Amino acid sequence: MKIGIVGISGSGKTTIFNALTGSVAEVSAYQKGKKDPNMAVVRVPDSRLDRLSSMYNPKKTTYAQVQYVDIGGTVSAREGMESSMDELLKLLHPVDALVHVIRNFYRSGEPPRPQEDLDTLESELIFTDLIILEKKIDRLEKEITKARKGNTGELELLKKAREIMERGEALRGYPEIAQSPILKGYAFLSAKPCIVVLNTGDEVELATTELQIPNAIILVELKGRLEMELAQLPPEEAELFREDIGLKEPATFRLIKESYQLLGLISLFTVGKDEVRAWPIRQGIPAQQAAGAIHSDMEKGFIRMEVTAYDDLIALGNEAAVAKAGKKRLEG
């Protein structure tokens, strides 16, 4: 799972990146002209995987992973910024979801304007998609009219997408279009699942800021600077501080949980003496596609999969007891 972190300049994107990954990236680097993104991979914490590992005692335990990409600057295709926009699009197109960081703290005496910043960022994503959309519609219309080639179904979907975005709405609110296989290759930014992180300062109380969130977006509020400092402490020390201030879990735990929910992901566990491993898969997919998450060859040559529910294994104690109770099942 790959997640891109975006936001208006000065919103605290790199602070949130550090809070989520435990990194120590320079928080003002982009304002000093740095263009390269910050990237880090973190493992997905899962107590179930820990329990399975203790049961099977494998040579290796492998957690699912999330890669965070901290994108510098502001996403914008306006005012001659096309060259830098091309660089940003190369970074953002492959991501599975976006984290919009919204400033909710005073900066150089300037008060926070979270609603205005959220609306601005959303508009910029839509505007960027429209630029790409208009070029493709124009090209397709010429191909269909003059050369009598081109996909008319694709053109029709693109025009529907344009109507939505011209109303100022993001495509993510229209999954039948946003998730259409025909348009998948475009990787429209406004179609990507999105979590808004309200980056609240120490001077602002949590849960006191009103924010109107667009449809199909999840809101998470964090005290970014505090979470960044905690993420850079030794785990035991950070846990004590969290207990003192009433934080139940690290920021990265909360964001990963929300990301899994947003993307409709669950974990498939494979177990054995060599390795116990967690694989993120889409909830509800057929067993054959789930096998493909492990290896593409398994999907191609798939026959069936023997499946045990985690709760049944824990309740009954071992695989033999699960089989005896008739709880094992074959999928495929």
What does this structure look like?
- With 332 residues, this protein is an alpha/beta fold.
- The chain folds into 2 domains: 2-45 and 65-263, Rossmann fold; 266-331, Beta-grasp domain (Ubiquitin-like (UB roll), Roll), CATH 3.10.20.30.
- The chain contains 13 helices and 11 strands.
- It has a 6-stranded mixed β-sheet with strand order 2-4-1-5-6-7, with helices on both faces. Strands 3-9-8 form a 3-stranded mixed β-sheet, sandwiched between helices.
- A hairpin with a 4-residue loop joins strand 8 (265-270) and strand 9 (275-282).
Features:
alpha/beta; Rossmann fold; Ubiquitin-like (UB roll); 2 domains; 6-stranded mixed beta sheet; 3-stranded mixed beta sheet; 13 helices; 42% helix; 19% strand; flat
Named CATH topology of the largest domain: Rossmann fold
State mean pLDDT (0 to 100 scale). 90
Percent of residues in beta strands?
15-25%
Strand segment tally? 11
Kindly summarize this structure in a few lines.
This protein is α/β, with parallel strands linked by helices. The protein has 13 helices and eleven strands. The strands form three sheets. It has a six-stranded mixed beta sheet, sandwiched between helices. It has a three-stranded mixed beta sheet with strand order 3-9-8, sandwiched between helices.
